[in-house]
Design goal:
The complex is a heterodimer of chains A (317) and B (417). With 317 residues, chain A is mostly helical. Chain A has helices at residues 11-34, 37-60, 70-86, 91-113, 118-138, 140-143, 161-184, 186-196, 198-203, 208-234, 244-257, 264-282, 286-300, 304-316; strands at residues 149-150, 236-237. In chain A, α2 (37-60) runs parallel beside α7. Chain B has 2 domains: 3-150 and 306-348, 3-Layer(aba) Sandwich (Rossmann fold), CATH 3.40.50; 155-285 and 365-401, Response regulator (Rossmann fold, 3-Layer(aba) Sandwich). Chain B has 13 helices and 14 strands. The chains are: A mainly alpha (317), B alpha/beta (417).
Amino acid sequence: MSLSSPASTDGPKVTLARVAITIGALAFALLPLVVPIYQVSILTEILIFAVLAMAVDVLAGYTGRTPLCHGAIFGVATYVVVYWSQMGGSPYVGVLLGVMAATLVAAIFGLLAIRTSGVYFLLLTLALGMIVWGVCLRWTSVTGGENGLRGTVRPEALAGHLPFYYAVFAVVGLITIVMWRFVRSPFGLTLRGIRDSESRMRALGYDVSLHLFLAFTISGFFAGLAGALYAMFNDFVSPSTVALSQSVEGLLMAITGGVGTLFGAFIGAAAIIGLENLVSLYTERWQSVLGLMFIAIMIFAPEGVIGRVRDLLTRRR
Amino acid sequence: MDRRTFLKTSAAAAAVGVVAKPYIARAQGGPIRIGLLAPLTGVVAAGGREMVDGFNMYWEERGNEIAGRKVEVIVEDDAANPDTALQKARRLVEQSNVNMLFGNLLANTGLAVANYVKGNGMPYFIPIIAADDLTQRNRIKNVVRVAGYTASQFPRPLADWALKQGYKKVATISQDYTFGHEQCGGFCQTFTEGGGQVLGQFWHPLNTSDFSPYLGQLANLGVDVVFAMETGADATRFMQQYAAFGLKGQIPLVGAMNMTDQSVIRTMGDEVDGVVVAAHFAEGSPDPVTQAFVAAYVKKFNKLPSLYGFSMYSGAMWVDEALKTIKGNAEDRDAFLASVSKTDLTGSPLGQTVKLDSYGNPIYDVHIRKVVKNKDGKYWNAPIANYPNVSQFWKYDPVTYMKQPPYSREFQGIKKG
């Protein structure tokens, strides 16, 4: 297989990566036992948004298409789950329906968006996301308009912060393994081929459109999973959950961690959510601080935290 | 260690130092902690700032003390975003260990926080959030609207007053969201039940810059009066364009009180002159208690108080009074909430005693107020008529009333006939 990942040729680096992943996983497993209870909810949020960032990364990092509608797809699942709970339905069925709805929306968006690439893809997905936002804002009888929807989604057994955290931890762990297998599968490698040279892949006989469509839909499926978890986390949804800023945040997390690294999503989510919470303790201008930080990242580490670390390691040697 | 690595390590060290600092010591019998949520950034930041000002003004006047215990106000910015509001509420409750939450400005942020405190019983006071159902159909026991009001509460006496002026035909124009639907609904229901007619209703998106399409239609409907419900910059633009299109003086303009709140008219000129709205608070009221409050506020902040400053000031007073009767024991939530609902606010800047109905919403003497110039040449709201004891249910029986659906674009309570 000529398209094998560069990492597999480099023994020590793989070991290092494994060690880093183990440490990361252990940290997420043990931290909640020692930090104050409020920080547990922050950790929960980090895990949920890491899934969104990974979903974005599947497209932005592995397929070479940067989407700006994943917040909206994420939010569709959140809306459906909360709506279902408000109607008195079981949360588990709600999650199933929510993820299905998000996947369906992603499939429709995918059909439209895969015809474009580059900046046109960016703009088209942005517009599609805005449609979802507009619908949520204006379809008051179903979505509650500006006020949003409230429900009690979280099952009784997971009401506490810790049980809920570990449930999310388990689910996110599973999702991460699946996504990791996915991007390393022959299908995932084909996506990377498309990212690097669409025309060559087409010449090799790959159905590029079909691959892109499936990648988009699958990525939407994962974003939907994150959205469903978010519904359980907040028991509440409003148009800000499907707004553009949500999509941008997902993308920024993927970029901060490093696009095309998958695990970078966790670092990105931790960095952004952590900083949001930290900086806002000290100044009401926290958004400006975050903005400056992004500029700094773009200038000094455009390849993201993991990319930068990988870079430094190669240079050392 | 080269320069770059040095920079990075010192940055990391600095970050760790920062993390360690904001630990807040906990002690039983220590200060009473109040978590104040206000939008200090985002579209309604100016209003959020006035909320904090009014709230702090009260505690400063009282030496930051309730019944011998220190009061510590912890302010968090909700960024006018419900997700942020929820996160900040969690932080205040779970990390800062506050005894109660106060605030929020936009209904969606308040509803998100209300849903959160529903689960944990934290007392949450909402002097600004006007969403009807929080003290009606979806009442939460520990969410109390001290010194606040429901959206549809004041337009009803206004409609009654309009009928008495001989107005029979109205058109409404409003921002298209729940706060607007509820205020228009309150007006239209009372107006049509009293024999009036609604000839048209216009809903425009928030942040409309050009009102000409609506104004053209309003001018041609042949109505006796226009009811407008606008907030913030929309209110400014609407009243400017209403005057610029020559409708001012042709068709009388009445509206929701937020349209002529000081936060809006403070910077405006003659176009606001003579607009009539209904509210509990009128900064131009001749009542000496009100004037003392207005003078103190002007002295401190060099501007006339808005609804935001007034409401948070009164809300703080309410909680203060309630806690005094239970010796400042804010830890006993049940006793605290019971005491709040029993408290009749005697010292309110309104110059009248205010009490809560059994659903946690205050009953007010409502002023019909008109925008006029005061002796300093500044526009303010002066009362021209008075409706005593107006509750959120107007003249309806609460139980029967709550059987009708909540107001929305589709349901405005308009009586046909």
